[in-house]
Amino acid sequence: MAVGLSYAVSKLQMLSTSDHASVVSMNLFVALLCACIVVGHLLEENRWVNESITALVIGVCTGVVILLVSGGKSSHLLVFSEDLFFIYMLPPIIFNAGFQVKKKQFFVNFITIVMFGAIGTLVSCSIIALGVTQFFKKMDIGSLDIGDYLAIGAIFAATDSVCTLQVLNQDETPLLYSLVFGEGVVNDATSVVLFNAIQSFDLTNIDPRIALHFIGNFLYLFVASTLLGVITGLLSAYIIKKLYFGRHSTDREVALMMLMAYLSYMLAELFYLSGILTVFFCGIVMSHYTWHNVTESSRVTTKHAFATLSFVAEIFIFLYVGMDALDIEKWRFVSDSPGTSVAVSSILLALIMVARAAFVFPLSFLSNLAKKNSHEKISIRQQVIIWWAGLMRGAVSIALAYNQFTRSGHTQLRANAIMITSTITVVLFSTVVFGLLTKPLIRFLIPNPKHTTSMTLSDPSTPKSATMPLLGSAQDSETDLVGHDIPRPGSIRALLATPTHTVHRYWRKFDDAFMRPVFGGRGFVPFVPGSPTERGEPQWQ
Amino acid sequence: MAVGLSYAVSKLQMLSTSDHASVVSMNLFVALLCACIVVGHLLEENRWVNESITALVIGVCTGVVILLVSGGKSSHLLVFSEDLFFIYMLPPIIFNAGFQVKKKQFFVNFITIVMFGAIGTLVSCSIIALGVTQFFKKMDIGSLDIGDYLAIGAIFAATDSVCTLQVLNQDETPLLYSLVFGEGVVNDATSVVLFNAIQSFDLTNIDPRIALHFIGNFLYLFVASTLLGVITGLLSAYIIKKLYFGRHSTDREVALMMLMAYLSYMLAELFYLSGILTVFFCGIVMSHYTWHNVTESSRVTTKHAFATLSFVAEIFIFLYVGMDALDIEKWRFVSDSPGTSVAVSSILLALIMVARAAFVFPLSFLSNLAKKNSHEKISIRQQVIIWWAGLMRGAVSIALAYNQFTRSGHTQLRANAIMITSTITVVLFSTVVFGLLTKPLIRFLIPNPKHTTSMTLSDPSTPKSATMPLLGSAQDSETDLVGHDIPRPGSIRALLATPTHTVHRYWRKFDDAFMRPVFGGRGFVPFVPGSPTERGEPQWQ
Predict the structure, then answer these.
(1) Confidence band (pLDDT; 50, 70, 90) for B531?
(2) What are the TM regions of this chain, as residue ranges (chains A, B) (predicted)?
(3) CA dist B508 to A319, A433, B535, B541, Å?
(4) Does residue B176 contact residue B456 with C-beta atoms inside 8 Å?
(5) How far apart are CA A168 and CA A57, in angstroms?
(6) Structurally, what CATH architecture does the domain formed by B82-445 represent?
(7) pLDDT in tens, A118-147
């Protein structure tokens, strides 16, 4: 066997010390990840802190230590790589979100989510772009053209759904979770079009044809990405059902599910679609069909393995952002005028808050107009939370800022350096300060979340995923695993009262008649068609 | 959220087409991995083929297709990267092997395994190096110096334990599996020293001091690597036991186990030790202590997630080697003299077979001399299988050959080109032809493996890992999970007959008194000390 390592060792000794340096970095990074998990666990009872903030703080502290040890030369261990983030870290997080999302909640609020994600992002981007144009022109910043201003709008319109996932709790506040997170997923599709438009269209004369082109492009992207995810998910269900892998190997099933999920993301990248939308819908389909075709141990394994991968990727991102924040080179140009930098960051933070308020409250009002029952409407307290939970900016903003402002001559230009450092400041501040305040804010506004957010049936039989020993919920278990044939008076009443009931029934019939025989899945058991037993499945509104 | 992908998309459109080419490659690669899993499943009943061969053949076929499509320019999708192999693919495979290995089997045969791994590799390397020196000097190959000949010895002394894992079955032939696989792990430590010695020592005058230095170096490497693995494993057990992660989150436990396992490998790299030995022993310790401190669902998840990662990594390697084999550049220099290439490959294959025979049979004879009971001895049929199962060469040989023969002027030199292509030929031939013949050979020599290999207690309560729905064996379950308090007459007799019994008892007492209170684990239940209930745990011989 491995004369193998001899290769590594000889290479280390002969060629360079940089190889060994990268081994040192990886060691430190993995050790820090372990530390984050342990510290995060110890602080879990704390009402302020969450895992993201822990990782961010540990990252910044490590950055300080490295800065001191290296004598002020460098503070980060790995070079920030957008590929690492978009190709390896983001897919497991979004896939897991789709895999564990409460499907009913998501589809009941589908239209609201799309409105928030698409129109909201546009509004947010426009307001931020307009705001910076007004403010920055009066300040001594440097040369920024209209493309840069629009790009700043796009950069700071990108909400950080990774952080949202940590702050909001799917079981405590299902409506808010599905709205804010769903918005984040749709946000991506909008943003791809937006950024492309800013970089490719002629920005001097905007006419209706471009707007039409823009809308068409968005619709294509949204539909195509969703379809790709659904098709890949169904394909995995079909393969596993037909070959009946369970007969032989749990490992094969798990491997196939992981690979197909990743394949869906990469296929979307291949066709210039939104990989995030694709992998999200692939996760939904896989949890509805594929997951029921595999063995018991495959189910436990996939559920926890996907969650673990997502968990590690999240910590990795925040640890990384924390460490990268202190990179000395970026701060060099800013150090002679700290006032300007603080002013720019403050303006950006204020604009983010205003821009988000400018679409959350009006769109919530519109959404409420369409609802008849008062308990379905988004209350003003919930609107405040939706507004607040989307204020955090994360690694996506940083990656975009790097892309826009380091292309032409690194951070040597004053304006570019200021924008990069301001982005980092905004990300750190919003994640830590806004993040710290979110949990107390939710507790303050909604003292007992279970009852106030009961827009849809909050199923008492749904336990928290983390505390369940085996096959807990999170896995859409309210339908699939526990008592789908036990009538629940409360649920029935709630269901009968909603107009989505009809859509739900048609979808159920379609699923039973055509989808389940081909793709498997145990979502529905058709005891008495149209009976009260139909609960908790995707309702296409 | 992710204006993210916009970055990727804009980058794709602006900067280069090479980025999109890499997306295409990744898509194809992931799709091929899926295809390998499906085809491997369909062919599982086949008595000749195994998963490695399937992946290798699919890889070669894909290579042919790419070669035709690209008009003879290129046949591989990714550039062969030793880092990818040694840093990402190998650790999960070896860790999983340690995690799932039957500990009793391994430790009962510890001395034999070390003999095979250390002395065997030295003998093998010497014979191959001597052989090629004699043969190649007479042939028209080009300039190779004594360093090259010795390196060839080291390259082809490296057995491919990944392939061994696929060909031999731990449950059917536990003794053979532990011997051949254990040999492979020890082989690594020997090889690190060997390769370093070849590259750093003055090869013109070999005196006893160098030999002594060599032996000391080997002992240090072996002991230090093992200790590092054990310490990391114990640390993970201690952390999880003290913090009792199960109270809150399965995901945290699984993440911590994965990260600590990987950390042990990277730490070994950091200290220039043998990462393979370290991660192997880390796996053993984790399965003995850590695994029993976590929740039920964590156990199922880790067991299958590690196995799945290992499974995917194995397929990846073989798929890759198959694809890389057809790289046109390497074959250009050889195409004008195909006879020489065939001759070189044949000589190498013959030398590999002779060199392995030269240590397997004498060392087995020595090992048998030390054993008193006839059923403990390695029969001549088993010796033939040990000899045969170690003949396969794999990705490790290829990585080493690249390191040795592409350093000075790529494959432009005739001798280097011939050595690279010959290595590929040997790897393909040995994996496919020898691999195809292994299953039938074992069936022919040992018609009913369960009974003929019963050197140690073959526990009938141990099911195959893959077919168990939940918490199957592979996880050393003979002691930990099922009936450790049920006396089994056959087992008792076998145990009492062995001289390792005493060592076993002392280890058990030590484990009960000092280790388990600190690190957890449920390996032993001390009902009656020294009673027949002590079964199936590590016996330090």
Answers:
(1) very low
(2) 20-40, 52-71, 77-99, 106-129, 218-240, 304-323, 343-363, 384-405, 417-437
(3) 42, 53, 10, 13
(4) no
(5) 20
(6) Up-down Bundle (1.20)
(7) 888 889 988 998 998 888 887 777 777 777
Angle at alpha carbon of residue A465, lines to A461 and A469, rounded to 5°: 90
Between positions 157 and 216 of B, the ones with CB within 8 A of A are: 157-161, 183-185, 187-188, 191-192, 194-196, 199-200
- Is residue B263 scored above 90 in pLDDT? yes
Give which of B305, B304, B30 is closest to A260, Cα–Cα. Answer: B30
Q: How far is B500 from chain A (nearest CA, A)?
A: 28
The answer for B 446-505 residues in CB contact with A (under 8 A) is 466-472
Question: Which pLDDT band, with edges at 50, 70 and 90, does A470 fall under?
Answer: very low
Please tell me the predicted confidence (pLDDT) of residue A538. 36
- How close, in Å, is residue B45 to chain A by CA atoms? 10
pLDDT tens digits, B399-420: 777 777 776 545 557 778 788 8
- The tens digit of pLDDT for each residue in A219-241 reads 888 889 889 999 999 999 998 88
**Pick from B3, B194, B199: CB nearest A396:** B3
Residues B280-307 have pLDDT tens digits of: 899 989 998 888 888 888 889 999 999 8
Element (H, E) at B281: helix B275-288
Average pLDDT over residues A363-378: 80
Q: Which residue has the higher pLDDT, A177 or B353?
A: B353
Query: Which among A5, A192, A255 has the least Cβ separation from residue B192?
Result: A5
The DSSP code sequence of A456-518 is: S---TT---TTT-SSS-SSSSHHHHTS-TTS--HHHHHHHHHSTHHHHHHHHHHHIIIIIHHH
Q: What is the pTM of this model?
A: 0.78
Q: Which is nearest to A367 in space by CA: A105, A102, A103, A113? A: A113
- Contact residues, chain A, for B200 at CB < 8 Å: 13
Long-range pairs of A368-375 with CB within 8 A, sequence gap ≥ 24: A370/A111, A372/A499, A373/A497, A373/A498, A375/A454, A375/A455
| Structural Rg of chain A based on CA atoms | 24
CB contact, 8 Å: A392 with chain B?
no
> A263–B30: do the CB atoms touch at under 8 Å?
yes
B258 chain-A contacts, CB cut-off 8 A: 308, 312
Whether B296 contacts chain A with CB within 8 A: yes
Residue that is written with structure tokens 């002590």 in the block:
B534
Q: Where are the domains of chain A?
A: 1-46, 82-445
